[in-house]
Amino acid sequence: MNKYIGFDIDSNKTIACVVQKGQKDKYNTLKTDIEQMREFLREQRRPGEKLHLTFEISGEAGYRDDQLIDFVDDITVSNPTKMTWIYRTAKKNDRIDARKQAVLLSIGEVPKVHIPSREIRQWRVTIQHRRKIVNRITGVKNRIRALLKANGFTKPAVRGSWWKLSNRAWMRQLTEVIGITSEQLWRMSLSNMLEELELLESQLKSV
Q1: Which of 5, 72, 170, 178 is 20 to 30 Å apart from 142, CA to CA?
Q2: Residue 99 CB: number of other CB atoms within 10 A?
Q3: Are residues 134 and 196 in the same domain?
Q4: 185 and 93 in one domain?
Q5: Which H, E and C letters describe the chain, residue by residue?
Q6: What is the extent of the structural domain holding 124?
Q7: Does residue 81 share a domain with residue 25?
């Protein structure tokens, strides 16, 4: 015997609908908490029954898939946009959404979203993180060049890249002025930007 369970999850509560052939649909309201979800699934398990769970894709779907997979026979993460076209109804509330998922799961019509393994998801997050750091490094370099040019330094002190060691040392020297006047506040900005650049480059090396 198969049990088809739809979770309609929001930040505060989760509505669970259990659809089973020959049985009346059952609803439960849970806190959106992994332990409560696990406990609910434990209670649904009966000898000879198989549990099939579905819930909609979200930023936490991978984590929930990892945490709940051992408590059911399979999990299907759904695409809610495509599901709307398959199961058309003008009515909408948490119970209807939970039942809609469970019913579509029971007839094999849930538009499935592939959830990569945890390792692959971690790599993807790290790659995205690295890309953001690279973009921020490019941004701060552009701001440093713009600041220097705005204050008369159209070229670096030493021929070649602005970011070679000798030119970085020159930039730091520009910030080492005792008693910066109100007309030299750009030097403080340059100092902060250089510190930001060094921090970002250290983070990039680590990643």
Answers
A1: 178
A2: 21
A3: yes
A4: no
A5: CEEEEEEEECCCEEEEEEECCCCCCEEEEEECCHHHHHHHHHHHCCCCCEEEEEEECCCCHHHHHHHHHHHCCEEEEECHHHHHHHCCCCCCCHHHHHHHHHHHHHCCCCCECCCCCHHHHHHHHHHHHHHHHHHHHHHHHHHHHHHHHHCCCCCCCCCCCCCCHHHHHHHHHHHCCCCCCHHHHHHHHHHHHHHHHHHHHHHHHHC
A6: 118-206
A7: yes
> Are 148 and 84 in a shared domain?
no
- Indicate whether 152 and 179 sit together in one domain: yes
Assess if residue 112 is contained within a domain.
no
Hey, what are 82's tokens? 């495509």
Rounded Cα distance, 11 and 107, in Å: 28
In tens, the pLDDT along 48-91 reads 999 999 999 999 999 999 999 999 999 999 998 877 655 555 55
Where the chain has pLDDT below 50, the residues are none
- What are 199's two structure tokens? 């921090």
Residue at 101 is within a domain: yes
